[in-house]
Design goal:
The protein contains 14 helices and 11 strands. By secondary structure, the protein is α/β, with parallel strands linked by helices.
Amino acid sequence: MDQPLSATEAATTASDTLRALNERIQQASSFVDLIDQEMRKSIVGQKDMVQKLLVALLADGHIILEGMPGLAKTLAIKTLSDVVDVGFSRIQFTPDLLPADLIGTMVYSPRSEEFSVKKGPIFNNFILADEINRAPAKVQSALLEAMQERQVTIGANTYQLPEPFLVMATMNPVEQEGTYPLPEAQTDRFMLKVVLDYPRKEEERSIIRQNTMAEGRSKVRKVIHPQDILGARQLVREVYMDEKIERYIVDIVYATRKPAEHRLEELASLISFGGSPRASIYMALGAKAYAFTKRRGYVIPEDVRAVCPDVLRHRIGLTYEAEAENISVNEIIEKVLNTVEVP
């Protein structure tokens, strides 16, 4: 009969397992540097955006990029699809778009006297939903159903979407004419919402040079295959997360729901609703993916703090009082992170 391990032996075994996992992830995550190098050929600055695109890709989540026109949102997504050897569709959302324009429809052939399926642009690995808030509710619902279920129903048949499948949506925060704001229940389906700012002066000079050179912008290479992404996603889920980190994530999310219980009484009148359970799930997955991009096999509190604002930004509702006082969601998230005890 096997003798139970002592506490010292159990700790040694766990340490050896973690060390072996860390070595596996260091080897498997080498492609992250290759992707980053290729992305830099087209994207100047915007390091956080590139980082969060990789996190969403590795965590099997979808992402919204919000920023002023000309901040390389579309270029970044197109470049990522060029670096990864996958199919890519760019869909320009407009008020007259129909669900059939997105998912496809049944087409009648007079010659064969039969209906056949014409698949829409959604049947690709990477989908760029450009200005997603310009499409009416029916089109938004069709896209979000595909995002959640990873399948599309056309006529009587259901078709699986290819893997990996990633929706990257863009939004313009200033021009609201002719837009249909996404309801909270729909934005909740997106793992991350990244808000972009203008580049620094030095970066803008590099952008000018890059776009006015006689030889044009450097071409990127395909450095990774879809199967490598799917394998990396499995490894991301194996990244070790201690129970203390799990409790830390839950405390952060609960502080947005019941701030008074977490010494944040001043936020109670400013938050109309807090993060959903998806916030906890995506924060954990995002932290694991972030640790993977840093070539670590374990999560530390800094990983959680790195992805927290992008996970919670579109999951916290503000009251009229908060809007009247010009208090932003980012300020609330910062107060929560500064108050909740770090393990």
